[in-house]
UniProtKB/TrEMBL annotation:
InterPro entries: Formate_THF_ligase, Formate_THF_ligase_CS, P-loop_NTPase
Tagged with keyword ATP-binding: yes
Listed GO biological process terms: carboxylic acid biosynthetic process; tetrahydrofolate interconversion
Protein name: formate--tetrahydrofolate ligase
Cross-referenced HAMAP family: FTHFS (MF_01543)
Entry-linked SUPFAM superfamilies: P-loop containing nucleoside triphosphate hydrolases (SSF52540)
Record note on quaternary structure: Homodimer.
Entry similarity comment: In the N-terminal section; belongs to the tetrahydrofolate dehydrogenase/cyclohydrolase family. In the C-terminal section; belongs to the formate--tetrahydrofolate ligase family.
Organism encoding this protein: Malurus cyaneus samueli
EC number per UniProt: 6.3.4.3
A GO CC term assigned to this protein in UniProt: cytoplasm
Keyword terms of this UniProt record: ATP-binding, Ligase, Nucleotide-binding, One-carbon metabolism
Pathway(s) per entry: One-carbon metabolism; tetrahydrofolate interconversion
Entry GO MF terms: ATP binding; formate-tetrahydrofolate ligase activity
Length: 673
């Protein structure tokens, strides 16, 4: 029996230390024989260990009774009138809190990113939760986790939920992973209202005269005709200063009522929060009532909506309303942008989003606070939780506290966008980056066999192979270099699995430190909760006090193509970029329309540094193909589509929903993970 345990899995009161994890990770001794030879091992400890290793995340979540959310709110300094309670375990937090705490100094700001992942994910959410549990529950340091709300696409598709896992997760995990407080539903409703408004406006303009349109848009009510506030704003944008509807000339009426949307330029798509590949290309307007106004369109997944990006980047209700109005949905027949404000729908969108703008308060398994807010994907959007959640949390933890947030997928995607997009919007400067790695992913990058969701891992991933690990550390080294481009200290968190050997763990930490990481720490939070991430928390605390020379990667004033090229070459390692004729045309159009000084949000596969998912490690010498370029003007970025990137995922042969069920007696959800 080995002495001590790198998993810290079983506390013992005996002077003879030992553990049981060996019997679950390669020990050949039968469990009964092990117990007979080691009298310090009790059957309750065995039961506990078996629960750790063989219980699902949802079973672990249910084994802990969360504290009432009003108690949690009081513990972290929220006033009664600053929360809106949803059930027993969730609450919305009002933005008025920012005004009350405006003079409170901010805490330290920590970003959790990762190496290029396998399709299984490498545990960034778990590390985030383990880290805040270690800081608050074990080191008595105020901390807050800020996470994205998971989309129901992956929850019922391949990847499962995003609440963390094991003993480092947000609870109740079924509430976290399903509807939560309805924010994604609000985004879906707002997005699709705007989509409906676009097609309806095209129909009405094609079937009515100027006079008929004007009479319907500005009707006589109780004998009085008047413009609404949003219509007056449109008149001002058109250079018409009149406020009396009866005084407009025929020419002014025509300018007012005609948006003249060019259907071929519509970029606004309908959304649904389900992976549905058959909605990637659809035809709308086929009913006879739509007068032959047929066009091809598509659905995106809801979290790819620009409204989700706006929710994540906005700083206030007024700012959100202005951003919603600026969203460009199409061009008119003269090539000028048409916005949500032009369609008169801004106020309605703001009404649908008025509750979604408030972060949702939840808790970890160890009772530490978590904000869940916004959920843009990192491969097809900017992949970070909300600015507002971060700002509120930074005030609540105080000057010596820590706010830990997570960027989606690898550092080349989520972290790059965190720095170049989110930090520009918020004005916040990160103190340290935690870069999550796993031996499993490093072996894949070192030439190991393909990792496929739902398929058993090959023996290369379950047996010690130092050469594969060493070869795969090139990806870890590259991600450390990417972090250093922004001048922020980096701590590597090695998320340890039971199949990792001590030699493999030591090798990864050694290479990480030699490659410029401030520190590299093995983490066992999945099996031990916050206790398994205490060393990581101590390393992060030290790194946060290091000199920080944060800088952006590019100047916003550079041309769009040059900004794309900088990201491709400095971050991905591409030789150059190549724009399709469509992409170049869009770049020229956005530049002409005055949108050239926005940051870039690359839509690219997360499974490789390149545009080809099968190329692992650190690909070089490739030309990055830009197939299209779109603009999210309200959110405030240009997003190029790399290669064949899709904004609507599909379901696999065996989706997660096969295992999800509801007990009709207890009403408990089964099978979520």
């Amino acid at each position: 029996m080995k002495k001590g345990c790198r998993y810290n899995c079983v506390p013992t009161t005996s002077t003879t230390t030992g553990c049981l994890c060996a019997c679950l990770s390669g020990c050949s001794q039968p469990l009964l024989e092990l117990v007979q030879q080691a009298p310090w091992i009790s059957w309750p400890k065995i039961s506990w260990l078996l629960f750790v290793f063989f219980s699902s995340d949802i079973e672990i979540s249910r084994a802990q009774s969360p504290k009432a959310v009003d108690v949690l709110a009081k513990e972290i300094g929220l006033l009664t009138d600053e929360i809106e309670i949803y059930g027993q375990t969730k609450a919305k937090v009002r933005l008025s809190l920012l005004e009350r705490l405006k003079d409170q100094p901010d805490g330290k700001y920590v970003l959790v990113a990762g190496i290029t992942p396998t399709p299984l994910g490498e545990g960034k959410s778990t590390v985030t939760i383990g880290l805040v549990q270690a800081l608050t529950a074990h080191l008595n340091i105020n901390s807050f986790a800020c996470l994205r709300q998971p989309s129901q696409g992956p929850t019922f598709g391949v990847k499962g939920g995003a609440a963390g896992g094991g003993y480092a997760q947000v609870i109740p995990m079924e509430e976290f992973n399903l509807h939560l407080t309805g924010d994604i539903h609000a985004i879906t409703a707002a997005n699709n209202l705007l989509a409906a408004a676009i097609d309806a406006r095209i129909l009405h303009e094609n079937t009515q005269s100027d006079k008929s349109l004007y009479n319907r848009l500005v009707p006589v009510v109780n004998g009085v005709r008047g413009f609404s506030a949003i219509q007056l704003a449109r008149l001002r944008r058109l250079g018409i200063s009149k406020t009396d509807p009866e005084t407009l000339t025929e020419e002014e009426i025509s300018k007012f009522v005609r948006l003249d949307i060019d259907p071929s330029t519509i970029t606004w798509q309908r959304v649904v929060d389900t992976n549905d590949r058959f909605l990637r290309k659809i035809t709308v307007g086929q009913a006879n009532t739509e007068k032959g106004l047929v066009r091809q369109a598509q659905f995106d997944i809801a979290v790819a909506s620009e409204i989700m990006a706006i929710l994540a980047l906005t700083t206030s209700l007024q700012d959100m309303k202005e951003r919603l109005g600026k969203m460009v949905v199409a061009n008119d027949k003269k090539g000028e942008p048409v916005t949500a404000e032009d369609l008169g729908v801004t106020g309605a969108l703001a009404v649908l989003m008025k509750d979604a703008i408030k972060p949702t308060l939840m808790q970890t398994l160890e009772g530490t606070p978590v904000f869940v807010h916004a959920g843009p994907f990192a491969n097809i959007a900017h992949g970070n939780s909300s600015v507002l959640a971060d700002k509120i949390a930074l005030k609540l933890v105080g000057e010596k506290g820590f706010v830990v947030t997570e960027a989606g997928f690898g550092a080349d995607i989520g972290m790059e966008k965190f720095f170049n997009i989110k930090c520009r919007a918020s004005g916040l400067v990160p103190s340290v980056v935690v870069l999550v790695a796993t031996v499993r992913a490093l072996k894949m990058h070192g030439g190991g066999p393909n990792v496929t969701a739902g398929a058993p891992l090959k023996k290369e991933y379950t047996e010690e192979n130092l050469q594969l690990v060493a070869d795969g550390c090139c990806n870890l080294q590259k991600q450390i270099q990417i972090t250093q481009l922004f001048g922020v200290p980096v701590v590597v968190a090695l998320n340890v699995f039971k199949t990792d050997s001590p030699a493999e763990v030591d090798l990864v930490c050694k290479i990480a430190k030699e490659s410029g990481a401030f520190d590299a720490v093995p983490c066992n939070h999945w099996s031990a909760g916050g206790r398994g991430a205490v060393k990581l928390a101590q390393a992060v605390e030290k790194a946060a006090n290091q000199k920080n020379s944060f800088k952006y990667l590019y100047n916003l004033e550079l041309p769009i193509v040059e900004k794309i090229r900088i990201i491709a070459q400095k971050v991905y390692g591409a030789q150059d970029v190549e724009l399709s004729p469509i992409a170049q045309s869009q770049v020229d159009r956005y530049t002409r329309q005055g949108f050239g000084n926005l940051p870039i949000c690359m839509a690219k596969t997360h499974l490789s540094l390149s545009h080809q998912p099968e190329r692992k490690g650190v690909p070089t010498g490739f030309i990055l193909p830009i197939s299209d370029v779109r603009a999210s003007i309200g959110a405030g970025f240009i997003y190029p589509l790399v290669g064949t990137m899709s904004t609507m995922p599909g379901l696999p042969t065996r989706p997660c929903f096969y295992d999800i069920d509801l007990d009709p007696i207890t009403e408990q959800v089964k099978g979520l993970f």
